[in-house]
Specification:
The complex is a heterodimer of chains A (358) and B (258).
Chain A: H1 2-69, E1 73-78, E2 81-88, H2 92-112, E3 117-118, E4 126-127, E5 140-146, E6 149-157, E7 163-167, E8 174-182, E9 188-194, E10 211-218, E11 225-230, E12 240-249, E13 261-269, E14 281-290, H3 299-302, E15 315-323, E16 334-335, E17 341-342
Parallel strand pairs in A: 8-10
Antiparallel strand pairs in A: 1-2, 2-15, 3-17, 4-5, 5-6, 5-16, 6-7, 7-14, 8-15, 9-12, 10-11, 12-13, 13-14
Helix pairs in contact in A: 1-2
Chain B: H1 5-62, H2 65-72, E1 88-94, E2 100-101, E3 107-108, E4 114-117, E5 126-128, E6 130-136, E7 146-150, E8 153-163, E9 169-175, E10 179-181, E11 188-192, E12 198-205, E13 213-214, E14 226-237, E15 245-257
Antiparallel strand pairs in B: 1-13, 1-15, 2-12, 3-12, 4-11, 5-10, 6-9, 6-12, 7-8, 7-11, 8-9, 14-15
The chains are: A alpha+beta (358), B alpha+beta (258).
């Protein structure tokens, strides 16, 4: 009799434990659901906040650039052609430095107000990979990467270097480069010359995988045009290979047509591998370089002295680059490494509902 | 039936166990139900209202109403009710929108002359940037430069100028680095470069709350009906053409139930 009662007690206890565990597990599910729901709401608000901060800062920087940069560099993409319009002027360095100073002020203010946005680097107004000015005097440049081909980028370097560098553009991915030199009443263009030493064109007639490079001028003198082509430059491992030069002349530089300066087209192989990119080879366009002792973009240029590369007037370079091959298999566009990072926002929640404070 | 003392004790223990278990379960159920209902029902709808707040402030930016506010140092009539659900209200704070006008000794000619601005009433000290607007009234000599003098230390400034003629150049100067303000400071000096003639118009200490203007004061926003806030950055310009950059401004909104 006692053992029957004992069994009933055990069953009752087990039953109660089972019921309790069932209720407890339901409570756990509800609690978890509640927490998940709150997390989702937080994420929703955080995303919204980050989106708005990002968009408003991006727009503000864009407006700042438009105001201070005066359309110094524009790049656009249509079908398989990249169009670049770059302004070169003696003022452009001052403008870029002012933009950089204003961004530094903004960065400093953000640090004081909690540091939720950090300007970690300045790729748009950053330091050039091509021209080293040393630690004390870094050369400012702007770099635009091809969105789905990050090994390819276009770098613009303002006065006094006045350069556009096309990293990674070669005969496998580039069909044609149309170069237009736009000028006014100074720095008149003369013929384009292919430099001795041999630009490779062996396969141009057969496989057709060559880059056509078309030169044209537009300004206050009759237009000059010429067409050249080059194929694989892979065997050119020297840091600096002269390819073409367009003579420009002005009476302010000496005897008109004699004391020339040049727009230099050189194939560069960068000495040190850049931090973010795998490709270190490409075409550099520099103006107006002093043609002395054949040192195109050489030691004379790196050892820039005030006035050496002064422009007599504002001038523009327009480029149309027609691409081919794997690059076109995916839709392309431009991108740049982020100018700033937004750290995850701090939210405060109160007990009765979610309130959002920043 | 009389139970033995041992059985009586077991019954009490069993009853106590049951009561404690039931209480714990009840507390958990109440809490979870409370959290479940409060987060899913109230907050989700409130996030939508905050999102609407972001939309409203973006719209004011795009439509130029923030530009107007910067120039006039106050908001014109912003009808937020047209864009918010009924029963909600919204306040907008425009940071660094107010100015301390220079009222005496504002002309700086040759020599390193200082002009005192005695009307500062900073809400807090700290490392803050200073902005000064001045007109250059001579044909500029070199790059006209101003500095900020505080406790015998001078802080350099960078400038963006709008040239309206050879003797009429309007420049906004900003310190390149932060100035360490002690609390309660009321006096600041603007120092000229010694070779240009300046007419100082105004000065502001960036990110100090005393230079913020709002559509509502803090006291007008009830704590227990407050829902949320958000912010946006806005690039300010000295003229309508948006050619002369003035500085970055934080614009913050707060939404509450009416």
């Amino acid at each position: 009799m006692a053992s029957m009662k004992s069994k009933k007690g055990i069953l009752l206890t087990l039953g109660l434990v089972f019921v309790s565990l069932t209720v407890l597990s339901f409570a756990g599910v509800i609690l978890n659901n509640s927490e998940t729901s709150e997390n989702r709401i937080k994420e929703f608000i955080e995303t919204e906040r980050m989106y708005n901060l990002d968009k408003s800062i991006s727009k503000s920087i864009s407006r700042l650039n438009d105001a201070l940069g005066r359309d110094v560099f524009n790049a656009s993409w249509k079908n398989n052609t990249i169009s670049i319009d770059a302004l070169f002027s003696n003022e452009s360095l001052k403008e870029q430095n002012e933009i950089r100073r204003q961004l530094n002020i903004f960065n400093s203010r953000l640090k004081e107000s909690g540091g939720y946005i950090n300007f970690t680097n300045f790729p748009i107004f950053g330091e050039s990979d091509v021209i080293s000015g040393g630690n004390s005097n870094p050369v400012t440049s702007s770099r635009f990467y091809l969105k789905n081909s990050p090994n390819m980028y276009i770098e613009y370097v303002a006065h006094p270097y006045n350069m556009i560098y096309l990293n990674g553009f070669n005969n496998t991915n580039t069909e044609r480069i149309n170069f237009t030199y736009v000028y006014g009443n100074h720095m008149f263009p003369f013929a384009v010359e292919e430099l001795s030493g041999g630009i490779p064109t062996v396969n141009c007639g057969t496989s057709g995988e060559c880059v056509e490079i078309y030169f044209e001028t537009r300004g206050n003198a009759p237009s000059i045009s010429s067409l050249f082509e080059f194929d694989n430059m892979g065997s050119y491992t020297a840091s600096n290979t002269k390819m073409y030069r367009q003579h420009v002349s002005d009476s302010s530089w000496g005897t008109y047509g004699v004391d020339n300066r040049t727009i230099a087209f050189n194939w560069l192989v960068l000495a040190a591998s850049p931090t973010n990119e795998k490709t270190t080879k490409g075409l550099a366009i520099v103006l107006p370089e002093k043609d002395q002792a054949g040192t195109f973009f050489g030691s004379t240029y790196y050892g820039y002295a005030e006035g050496t590369n002064s422009l007599l007037a504002e001038t523009r370079i327009e480029l149309e680059i027609t691409l081919r091959g794997d690059v076109l298999k995916h839709r392309e566009g431009f991108m740049s490494p982020p100018v700033y990072d937004i750290v995850f926002p701090h939210l405060e929640t109160s007990a009765n509902d979610l309130k959002v404070y920043f | 039936m009389i139970l033995s003392p041992i059985k009586r004790k077991k019954g009490i223990i069993f009853a106590l166990d049951g009561a404690i278990a039931a209480t714990i379960i009840l507390i958990m159920l109440v809490n979870t139900t409370y959290y479940f209902t409060s987060t899913s029902r109230e907050s989700l709808s409130q996030t939508q209202v905050i999102k609407r707040g972001y939309d409203v402030i973006s719209m004011f930016d795009e439509s130029g109403q923030l530009d107007d506010a910067l120039r006039n140092e106050k908001f014109a009539d912003l009808n937020v009710y047209d864009f918010l659900p009924s029963g909600y209200n919204m306040s907008i704070d425009f940071h660094d929108g107010l100015r301390t006008d220079c009222t005496s000794s504002c002309s700086l000619s040759s020599g390193r002359i200082k002009t005192p601005l005695n009307t500062l009433s900073l809400t807090r000290g700290g490392n803050l940037h200073v902005q000064v607007n001045a007109k250059i009234t001579n044909a500029p000599s070199g790059i006209p430069a101003l500095g900020i003098g505080l406790n015998t230390v001078q802080y350099a400034m960078t400038s963006i100028c709008a040239s309206k003629g050879i003797n009429d150049m309007d420049c906004t100067y900003t310190t390149t680095g932060p100035v360490p303000f002690p609390t309660g400071i009321t006096n600041l000096n603007v120092v000229s470069d010694g070779s240009n003639n300046f007419e100082v118009h105004w000065l502001k200490v960036l990110d100090d709350p005393s230079y913020t203007f709002s559509t509502r004061t803090e006291a007008e926003i009830p704590d227990d009906q407050f829902i949320g806030s958000g912010e946006r950055w806005y690039a300010g310009f000295d003229d309508d053409t948006r050619e002369y950059f003035e500085g970055m401004h934080k614009v913050r909104f707060r939404i509450w139930l009416q």
